[in-house]
Amino acid sequence: MPQLNPDPWLLVLSSTWLTYIIILQPKILSYLFTNTPNKNNKITNTNPWTWPWT
């Protein structure tokens, strides 16, 4: 069964993952996110919505 022969795709798979882990991952993780979460912990008082048909 040719599907069980790992010769043609194992090298490609392993080289792709090694490239991702060694080269691309540090580059991607080095970016700074511009959308920082707001640290404001104020609780806002909201009024409930009044439906006109009730």
Topology:
Blueprint: H1 7-29
How would you describe what is shown here?
The chain has 54 residues and is an all-alpha fold. The chain has a domain of 30 residues. 43% of the residues lie in helices and 0% in strands. The protein is elongated, with a radius of gyration of 26 Å. The N and C termini lie far apart (70 Å). The mean pLDDT is 79. One of its GO terms (biological process) is proton motive force-driven ATP synthesis. This is ATP synthase complex subunit 8. InterPro entries: ATP8_metazoa, ATPase_protein_8.
Radius of gyration: 26 Å
Number of strands: 0
Number of helices: 1
Q: Indicate the mean pLDDT.
A: 79
One letter per element, helices H and strands E, the order comes to H
- Low-pLDDT ranges: none
Beta-strand content bin: under 5%
Shape by Cα distribution: elongated
- Helical content band: 40-55%
Instruction: Supply the helix-strand structural class.
Output: mainly alpha
How far from one another are the termini? 70 Å
The main pleated sheet reads as: none
GO molecular function: proton transmembrane transporter activity
Subcellular location: Mitochondrion membrane
Protein name: ATP synthase complex subunit 8
Membrane topology: Single-pass membrane protein
